[in-house]
Specification:
4 copies of one chain form a homotetramer. Chain A is of the alpha/beta class. Chain A is built from 12 helices and 12 strands. The first copy, chain A, is 34% helix and 22% strand. In chain A, helix 2 runs parallel beside helix 6, helix 6 packs across helix 12 and helix 7 packs parallel to helix 11.
Chain lengths: 445, 445, 445, 445
């Protein structure tokens, strides 16, 4: 790719990223973003699957209620989103898959890009670049503060570049644009439709995180924690706190009790675990025994078994805290990520491709993560059927950390990431990745 | 008062009540209501005090922040509120006092009516009368669910009737229209300006509560609990709950701890106490160690000393819960009510006036209350200087309990209450109230 | 009674009290004391019932295990207790009843004296009178620190005086020497045998408490709190706290949780309640997840219903705290007292008899109590069948409060109390008590 | 060593072990055991240091109060312990060091054997071997349930064997008989006197633990957790729980609060941590607000920094829990162990010596531990000055786990352990240990 072509592509990706940044959409309601992606992939010649073809409805987690979905669907319509795509996605089926088949046989390569924003208001500080340049969020309380706007732009850039080299393509490329990564809600439901079936390679990555230098590439992030996200609702009975406190059943104190005891779950000798009650709210009026309380929490474990241990303890604690105050507690799993490790055998191939890019200034073979991602469902699925995959980091300085209101990245990372992914797609095609054939006997090459 | 006159007055009060019901305003932001009251009193010939003449600025509790006040001031302007009055009330000084002096010397009689709404959304059920008749709240999340709309209507009805009998008036009548009764925030600040100074009688009342029969009058509510309302804010440090939980300082767990231990404050052998954490919320994201949590709570005691005991314990618990988690906690008193008892020596006079009203079908001398009201500051002030007072109930069936979204009362209670108050005002004038002169040597009569 | 006679009796009571003081016996193990009482009553001509004739075995609460009972039985034997009585009392049946019937018909009068000591070590301070005079407890960890040694002495003094006036006696006198008053464990089981059946009067009293002046008599203590005493045992699973903490089920944390939440049971609008976890212990070694924890607690309520409310809440909390930590919890009621009020109609009779005693210097008709006693089962039983009763206080200065290691009283109170009781017995006989015949139509007089 | 000699030595060790087993002594009160050791070492020709020559008085942790020490000293006297040694050890200075110097220069080798028993009652089950053979504990509540009786026997066996080969000895052997290993209380204070100064090798081991096969040797236990043992005392104010609960300051609830929150200390991203409140007790009587509560707890961390983190959190929590209830809390460190790793470079030497012993049937180079030991202070001290050391396991089947009342081991392990240690002592002397000279440049060889 020559300099000029690179510039043109980068310009396109930047424009795309800024448009998406200005219109952040939370998980399962990425109607505008997904429609835009679907239309673009279609225009580039990809076979496009969306709606329930792209995601299994019942396997989705943490889907908002119908009214909220409808509100965002109507908003999308008002904003001019193409009803053709919108109709297919209604009800929170905002996944999009684009498939491009090469002329020759070759490996199946799955790429994943996430699309949802974060529920946080964007900074309006004058020195916040999106404000300066006029592309900051136009939706109060919503912001692309985790870089998924960039991921979508990278995905579409990659789509364009691969389409441009279709004649060289062997095998099949699947671009998975996933909704609801925040809270680990969407990946599993795409896996369950079968979009990773038969995939030989899985490539995925994230802007920033622990890689804060422009031009740095981390080939493989390891040590994803298995995680379960839970929403719990305590329901008791209100009563006047002065006249007749004994008639109430205090849902708020039940929730507080649960929170404290959850953080007291015993450490486990077999490895690291985590628990966090990230949000809790309850009560209606100062002089009313609280009749309701809600809690958002997450559990993690270094292994599936450890996460399971945390989940078992949590169930018992939620139920017991409720019964302590004579209230009910209902909870549901609204997100899941599993533990996973990237395939180290892919690192040499990535290093080699990086070596060919003058924009890459630093290469890190692998780093531990200590957090969770639901791309692990895809990675694990591919590995289980004999394929290989990695979760990369695309380095960029950040104006502020992820999920903060002044978050921003250096847009030049978009070009670097897209180019690297395209190189890897074609490197996989050429068999360069198969450094140890014994590890990958399933390959169609 | 003849039947026709009664009907005319009642019609006026009903119209007034419905107008106010449709425009509910929360405490310290009753700009529209108070302007309407001030204009009306003025038109009826009352000397009108408002703004800082009616309420001591620094003695107000639980005043919203400047931006919220401004928002409601602008809204009032847009709704056509007279800038003359609005200007005087700006910054949350929404008290109004109307004074009418008789031609002859006589007692000083203070009457109190509260004006604020409740922060609750009104029912939109078709069988909810305000919906049927088209006067339900036009402001989402706000509703006159405690009958203060009726109190204002009664107050203006009383104002009109007394003005109509000015020639008979001896002494002085002071109509106190109080902001911010909800949360016990406004009365003390009106007392501190001096509006109860020299008052010989204090009359006050409430629609409904424990009196649910139309035509029932409770002459004196007793056993008001002393109360303190507190807002507490815990501030810690956020951290990623997966990567580095140990870097956080968990403000939410501190708040939960405080809530549990507040409810565990030891019972007191000298009488009843109460504590309620009515609202608690904290945390930002599921995967973030919560950096902030807020709590609204209230304390009560049968006596001032018991309420003080609860307050001392609360201070220690809030501070200790914060230090337990290495976070800070700031709290402030946002409301206060004191314990008080009505003057039983006034009951015979009230019974006598009720006997003269064919609309009164049931008379109850006194009942215990078990809740709190800040009218007690006014009642206590009058008693301290040798005067007497009562807090009455004006019976009415209710569509739903107070502070519930389907709350509604029988509007005929407005006429009954207004007539009774006017009768009492003139009865006091005639000295009928002074059943035991030894108890009231300070009287100016 | 002349001065000399009084002196002789007092000397006897003092000797008796000191002997018992030196040999304190805890509840259900008063083998020596009860044998001594039984022998004495028998010698004075009373019909004596003891063992299961005096107390219903299954109705006893908080009885120690068989080994402990046996240990005390053997100790009693070694100390020379008459095997005749001991044999009858074995297994913790240490109640004694002495009955004396008059020659003429008349009322049935029940008197109650409690016999057990407190589980507290006695002070060995040189200025502690029992040390000075050489009659301090010879049993480590046990002490008559609540004056029951005095009560037994009074009871035997009364027995002697009545026996001496047998010819004057009409009706029947029943002297109930009750075991296990501490913890409210013994009275109910004596009632269940029927010893209060048909009783017209019930007289009972306590040295000291709120009456600290020698010569003061309080005629009626009121406001006994209903109470339930509970022992709870949590059983979990031990595990090495370093190697495998997750394998344990933490019984100690369950108990701590229960303790905190018990103290947080909501206040009740209908009256005073109390809860106290008076003792808690758990765990085996520092590095072992605690597998067991024990808790002693008590509940109280101004009424039976309030005490029931506390008991219901307690059951739920104990069960929930256990399930919170995956441990079991078993609990049993080891003591019960009920609420009761003395009969005010007896006060004039008591006042009159006091007036006749130059040793009585102060008379208090009644005072509220705010604590619990199981004599209330007897009082209530008598009242239910139309009889009347009181719980008196016999004033005395105290060297230290009840249940403290330096507790001691002025022994002159023994003579005053005994004389008053005897006077009342004969006053009842003479019908003097029946001040209001309408209140007592059941009387056999 | 021939078979006969082996048998003779084993018989002696068994006799010694059984004698010590029958007379268990808790930490700092091993007067009988230590006297016996001192006498024996002296008889074998060792220079013996004891009392404050062997242990630094102020550096000892968790020393019982003077009365308890005196009680055990008197008991030892009564049991015939030689007053010569006892006098030197009084006040809890029960460490003994025996030094034997070779005729030629050579390395300094320190060996450590611990002597204290566990505070647990020994099983009296007929199938418990010490009962069958008549050497079970003659002290109620005390038992050698961790094998230290065996360690002492091994130590004396080693002492005898080395003394028997004195002519071959080069350098210096120091036998450290340590008191108070349970609770990690004694090692540091021996280090501080200087007994590890200049040591080139440190050899130590334990019977059983994770090695349950007779004839198995684990050359190096790794991953000792750093630990801090803390005793905390809460002091509040008692009050009658019925009459005046508000006058109390509840020390028990403060302790319960501390326990719950200690278990809720946030997990740390840098490694494993542990916390356990192993014992808690508080309160005096059921109807008394508890005025005192005691707590024994321990903290652990994979590294010193992690243990420090736990200690910081603990300090804050203890102080905050106390202030929550208006009580005081004092706490002290009563034990400390540090993290440490054995020197892997010694493993080949150990393997080689094991290979020469037909009694060794299984060799394990190293295993992780996950618990704590204060021998780590000695190991670390030696390593800091350039020396090397290991903590071995001497395999044995166990009748029940360590610290259980039926604990017992196969006495044949005594012979195997002693022989291995002696072989290692002479192997070190011969320089066999220095497999990698670069790692041990400080060596005096």
């Amino acid at each position: 790719m020559n300099h000029e072509e690179r510039n043109r592509l980068l310009t396109g990706m930047v424009t795309c990223r800024r448009d998406i940044h200005a219109h952040p959409e939370p998980g399962w309601m990425e109607y505008r973003t997904a429609s835009l992606v679907a239309a673009r992939l279609s225009a580039l010649g990809y076979e496009v699957a969306t709606g329930e073809q792209a995601i299994r409805s019942e396997a989705r987690m943490g889907v908002p209620d119908a009214a909220t979905l409808r509100f965002h669907e109507e908003k999308a319509l008002r904003e001019g989103v193409d009803p053709f795509w919108l109709e297919r996605m209604k009800g929170g089926h905002t996944a999009v898959v684009g498939v491009l088949r090469g002329l020759k046989p070759g490996p199946v390569i799955a790429l994943r890009f996430d699309m949802d924003c974060v529920e946080i208001g964007e900074s309006d500080a004058p020195d916040h670049l999106p404000c300066q340049l006029g592309f900051s969020s136009n939706r109060s309380g919503l912001m692309h503060a985790c870089g998924h706007d960039g991921h979508v732009a990278i995905g579409l850039g990659v789509a364009e570049m691969i389409a441009g080299r279709r004649s060289e393509l062997a095998g099949e490329v699947r671009l998975l644009f996933q909704p609801a990564e925040e809270g680990c809600r969407g990946a599993k439901a795409m896996v369950e439709v079968g979009w990773l079936d038969g995939a030989d390679y899985f490539l995925c990555g994230h802007i920033g995180l622990k890689s804060r230098i422009l031009g740095e590439i981390v080939a493989s992030v390891d040590g994803f924690l298995s995680t379960t996200k839970i929403d719990a609702m305590f329901r008791g009975k209100e009563a006047h706190a002065g006249n007749s406190p004994e008639l109430g059943s205090n849902a708020l104190l039940a929730a507080c009790t649960a929170a404290l005891h959850l953080h007291g779950i015993s450490r486990h000798s077999e490895g690291a675990t985590r628990v966090n009650v990230g949000m809790l709210e309850g009560g209606s009026g100062r002089n009313v025994i609280p009749g309701e309380a809600r809690m958002k929490l997450e559990l993690r474990g270094e292994t599936e078994a450890l996460n399971e241990y945390m989940a078992r303890e949590t169930s018992r604690i939620l139920a017991s805290a409720a019964s302590m105050y004579g209230v009910s507690c209902e909870w549901e799993t609204v997100g899941r990520g599993i533990s996973a490790e990237g395939d180290r055998s892919l690192i040499p191939m990535i290093e080699q491709e990086c070596a060919g890019m003058d924009t890459v200034v630093s290469f890190v073979p692998s780093i531990p993560f200590g957090a969770s991602e639901d791309a692990t469902f895809m990675l694990r699925k591919v590995q289980e059927q004999g394929g290989r995959g990695v979760y990369m980091l695309f380095g960029s300085p950040l104006a502020a950390g992820h999920h903060q209101s002044s978050f921003d990245f250096d847009e030049r990372v978009l070009g670097i990431a897209a180019e690297l992914i395209v190189r890897l797609v074609f490197a996989c095609r050429n068999g360069a990745a198969v450094s140890d054939p014994a590890m990958h006997t399933n390959s169609k090459e």
